[in-house]
Write a structure and sequence with these properties.
Elements lengths: L6 E4 L2 E4 L3 E4 L2 E2 L6 E4 L2 E4 L3 E4 L2 E2 L10 E4 L2 E4 L3 E4 L6 E4 L2 E4 L5 E4 L9 E2 L1
Parallel strand pairs: 1-5, 2-6, 3-7, 4-8, 5-9, 6-10, 7-11, 9-12, 10-13, 11-14, 12-15
Length: 118
Amino acid sequence: HKDGGSMHLEHSTLNFLGNVTVSNCWAPHAGGGIASSYSDMKFWGSLNLIGNTASELNSAGGGGIIVWNGVINFTGDLFVAENHAGGLSLQNSSAYFEEGSDSLFIANTGHYGAGMTA
């Protein structure tokens, strides 16, 4: 598939109970680490997106993660570093950060938004 270097969710609901690290993954289009469409994701622990790449320069980006028409919820911490084509890309989507959830974006590169595109 062209999207999602480590996983691609479609029409799904996924709860991650522990900590998740996605690093050094690649996708030829969008979502170098994770791609999600029409899905709901909740991260109860931390999510670390490090060194992922979405290759197509004119794609919707999301070197770390891209979400189309979905919802992503962070209860734990979000760490996004050294992703290429953007760290987090939301396309017609919503992201919720629970109280006590910290986010840190470091050294991401992107055509549209280096850290976050919403």
